[in-house]
Amino acid sequence: MDAVALSRLQFAVTSMFHFIFVPLTLGLSIMVAWMESRHLRTGDVLYLRMAKFWGKLFLINFALGIVTGITMEFQFGMNWAEYSKYVGDVFGAPLAIEATVAFFLESTFIGLWVFGWEKVSPKVHALSIWLVAIATNLSALWILLANGWMQHPVGYVLRNNRAEMVDFTAVLTNPYGWLKFLHTTLSGYVVAAFFVMGISAWHLLRKSRTGFFKRSFRMAAWFGLASSLLLFIVGDFHAAEVAKTQPAKFAAMESVWQTEKGAPYNLVVIPDVAKERNAVKALRVPGMLSFLAYHDPDATIKGLTEFPKDLRPPVLATFLSFRAMIILGLFFIVLSFAAVIISKKDRLEASPRFLKLMLFALPLPYIAGQLGWVVAEVGRQPWIVYDVLKTSDAVSRTVSPMQVWVSLIGFTLIYGLLAVVDIYLLAKTARKGPEPELSVVGAVQTGQEV
Amino acid sequence: MIFQVIWFILWGVLWAVFFMLDGFDFGAGMLHGFIAKNEAEKRTVLNIIGPVWNGNEVWLITAGGATFAAFPTTYALMFSYLYTALLLLLFSLILRGVAIEFRGKAEGAGWRKGWDVAFFLGSFLPALLLGVAFGNIFAGLPMDAEGYHGSLLTLLNPYGLLTGILFVLLFLVHGALWVALKGTGDLEMRAGKAANGIWYILLPVAAVFLVYTAFATKLYANYMKAPALLALPAIAVFSLLAVKFLSFKGAYLKAFFASCATIVMVTFTGVAGLYPNLIPSNISPAHSLTIFNSSSSVYTLRIMTAVAVVFVPIVILYQIWVYRVFRHKEAAGKETY
To answer: Which positions in chain A touch B58 (Cβ < 8 Å)?
Structure first.
């Protein structure tokens, strides 16, 4: 493998690993903050215990999100020096702003939250976890505005042998970036909701601390239903934005080979990449694809054959990832809808099969998120910045394949080890369940009976 | 012109604040195994840096991000030229973060011992590597039109290593003072002793560094042109002496502030000598990366200046506030970490 392939592989490994931890952080921070606020408002100690228990899992996950995030910042310079030189004038700004505006806030107040239970008032303590939740999501906004710019570059001109920013507002209001932000954060909320429901289901199956876990489950069910519904709507707008700005990616996502007016949506498609056509097309809904892409059933969809072969993304990976993500997305709506109904009727303990299903559904939103990134990043190829810079021209010239081999193996080993330790700790903490009521610190401060 | 200079100064400030803040975390991490004699004391050391280390580390992320946004060419070339060194830095920072967070989350002597080693390495290696990196930046890298003619071994030259050792010693004293300030009883006593003892090694190393810099780098050229700059190393030397005077008396808070001043002024001494270079070339001065030939456009620099002017003071304010919340001595052996 050459330095380009190796650097791409390394970026894929490190960013996908980073993105195991990010989505849970995005959603669980909000849920923990909500629990702590509920305790403040109602005085119900159960909420406080919930904030502490889920907060502990949040922290184990958060630690890895932070340390694997530093890798991402370093890699742009280490492996993608030509990229950094060429677009740093535009791309560097949101990254630096992210650190200044969001990352500081998040990292400073997480310390206050963990260590400040007895140092600040309950209100300030709750405020600190809200600041963490806001900062985490704000951090995602800046990162995704940066990524949105790679997908759909705006507000720049090419001069002095590089892309120079001329309109910061355009970068800031790039619809692609905002849709990506909403889509990604909502997917993180779904991850968090299914995480809480899955672990609660495990305990409910064992009839342990049922009061605690029923309430956790119910809160997560509502959060999951709202997020998965919004996720699907935003996803639809996001796909339409892709159709408008990245027609080759959209054609690959749907495996459309020939340009077609009033294109149908085929529920079953098997692409035959070698022959540049689909081997199987079945269950067609007339005009549906045009409608989804342009909200007009007669609109024209550009086929892959319109693009020179070297400007087409890998079709199979893009198409399959997209389809699987959509199916999973629909499944999340169905599951969280059922979860809301069953927990509302207080029938959770009487539905062990459903609880088992929710336990096994825990990893699915993670998988859907990873698939989404495959669509976004593989689907953008051969470009690193769409229509501006090719991935093959972006790699560091002075870094040898040998160096990347060493770092790739190093990352794989260290990250593999971290994954094992992290899963061990999460499982251990999740299984142990919340602290017994009497040891809950902080209850005394609010004057509540324990 | 003016914006490049503003960002050069800000670049120096970000690094200086990072070394000043995370420096004591690195120092505490290196000393952890030596001055904490039992499990309760080990937890105390972790709890002493616990509330703030995360926020301290972000100064590094911001320094990196600022380099990217303000001087993208320097960011790109520095990070790709120093590939293996930065890889080691990354691995050790990952190790440290995970060690701090995970150590207390499970039981077992083997588990804790393993993370103690990781905590030490994850504190020692970044201190050393950052010192080696900055020593080499001060001295210049072998780069010309064809790119970079060095490897990891090139960086391990005597001056680079000396700077690495200087950083390690500075952070050791700094961290010892922080633990002495925040700890109680035997831990406080041992940390105070460590600060006083290590200072005797730091002083001659710092003296050798100041002299060797005249031979290994061109940093002093700017001081010849503008002698007023000599105030920077002068304050550094004065603060370093004050550290000893104050810590000997047991005035750890004042000694810690003197140590902060030392670290900041040592950084400024180097950065002021670099101007207008960010990374000089030691084989072809024309290919030095300067703040002018590697900067972003004035438009971008202006926007980033506005962001920095608004948000950096806010960051400083809430970080000071959090430090104030945790201003008291850490009660021994609590189980937070």
So the answer is: 99, 103-104, 107-108
Q: Would residue B263 count as lying in a domain?
A: yes
pLDDT for the residue numbered B335: 63
**Distance (Å, whole) CA B85 – CA A352:** 53
Which of A191, A101, A93, A188 lies closest to A149 in space, CA to CA? Answer: A93
Tell whether B218 is covered by a domain.
yes
User: In B, which residues are within 8 Å of A103 by CB distance?
Assistant: 58, 61-62
pLDDT at A333: 97
* pLDDT tens by residue, B170-192: 999 999 999 999 999 999 999 99
pLDDT at B337: 64
The separation between CA A419 and the C-alpha centre of its own chain, rounded to angstroms, equals: 18
Question: Looking at CA atoms only, how far is residue A63 from chain B in angstroms?
Answer: 7
Q: How many Å is the maximal CA-CA distance in chain B?
A: 60
Distance CA A131, CA A152 (A): 30
CATH code where residue B305 lies: 1.20.1630.10
Considering only the beta carbons, identify the residue of A63, A73, A403 that sits closest to B97. A63
**Is B102:A71 a contact under the CB 8 Å cutoff?**
no
Say what the pLDDT of residue B147 is: 86
A446: exposed, middle or buried (C-beta count within 10 Å: 0-12, 13-18, 19+)? middle
Torsion sign across C-alpha atoms A281, A282, A288, A292: negative
User: What is the predicted pLDDT for the residue at B264?
Assistant: 97
Residue B335 belongs to some domain of the structure: no
Residue B289 within a domain? yes
Report the complex ipTM. Answer: 0.92
Binary contact (B61, A103; C-beta < 8 A): yes
Distance from C-alpha of A355 to C-alpha of A348, rounded to nearest angstrom: 7
pLDDT, tens digit, for every residue of A341-383? 999 999 988 899 999 999 999 999 999 999 999 999 999 999 9
**Domain range for B67:** 2-143+150-325
CB–CB contacts below 8 A, A to B: 213
B315 near A106, Cβ under 8 Å? Answer: no
pLDDT tens-digit profile of A66-85?
889 999 999 999 999 999 99
How far, in Å, are A253, A275, A313 from residue A305 at the CA level?
Answer: 14, 11, 12
Contact of B292 with chain A, judged by CB distance below 8 Å, is answered with: no
Q: Hey, are the CB atoms on B52 and A111 less than 8 Å from each other? A: yes
